[in-house]
Amino acid sequence: MSETSQKSDGFRRRIRSFIRREGRLTPGQQRALNELGPKYLIEAEGPRIDPAELFGRTAPLTLEIGFGNGDSLVEMAAKDPEQDFIGIEVHRPGVGHLLNGIEHFGLTNLKAVCGDAVPFLEQRLGEQSLDRLLLYFPDPWHKKRHHKRRIVQTPFADLVATRLKPGGLWHLATDWAEYAEHMREVLDAHPAFTAEHEGTGENARPDWRPRTKFERRGEERGHQVFDLLYRRR
After folding, report:
1. Is 214 known to sit in a ligand binding site?
2. Is residue 144 part of a domain?
3. Where in the sequence is the domain holding 59, given as residue range(s)?
4. Fewer CB within 10 Å: N-end or C-end of the chain?
5. Residue 213: predicted pLDDT
6. Per-residue model confidence (pLDDT) at position 4
7. For the domain that residue 201 is a member of, what is the CATH number?
């Protein structure tokens, strides 16, 4: 067991950043998992992967945690073929939807993981392997007694810091103002990161981030959206 794994085992036991709400797979999603999964899916746990071997080239690598139905991630990968992308999602319907998107657009620069992000970061990615980490609209666990379940905590930031290259970008977005404040408190105090957003990050979506289903839903409820950008020192 690596030092990183030893340090974060306790974190993984303490914090579960999601609840597996499976939902019903459509026939198309099930077909995608069965037929496309062997080509495009990566196991969440196992030995280190070599991104150059995985994609057949050396290119900047972006990881998105919690891609939902995958539409925005497919859009980013299609618009930026010179970069490689890996998306992680725990819900199989969303993964199946993403796989269908990969097939539809003929993407060769996008792979997916169906599982938990923490063991994937710990086990499968080497240190300084990521150019960008995207965390868009994670579960805010807005009840105070559930705050400990939020994925953005100092131990998780410690892990992310080891996987981002120096100068790498961690881009977070949320439509919960209180969670945005929590994110800023954790990452502003972290010695590995420097904030690049202005002010609170409110209404500051970069042009290269597509709007998501969760974002539109939040806006319909009158929520402001916060985009927070942190650079790895």
Report:
1. yes
2. yes
3. 3-16+29-232
4. N
5. 83
6. 40
7. 3.40.50.150
| Per-residue confidence (pLDDT) for residue 218, from 0 to 100 | 84
Is 71 annotated as a binding-site member? no
Cα–Cα distances in angstroms (integers) from residue 167 to residues 164, 193, 194, in the given order: 8, 9, 10
What pLDDT digit, counting tens, does each position of 52-77 carry?
999 999 999 999 999 999 999 999 99
Q: What is the pLDDT of residue 7?
A: 45
Three-state helix/strand/coil letters over 53-70: HHHCCCCCEEEEECCCCC
Quick check: is 21 in a domain?
no
Active site residue 158: no
pTM of the model: 0.90
Domain total in the chain: 1
* Residue of 9, 71, 80, 139 marked active site: 139
175 is in an annotated binding site: yes
Q: Is residue 24 part of a domain?
A: no
Regions of the chain with pLDDT less than 70: 1-22
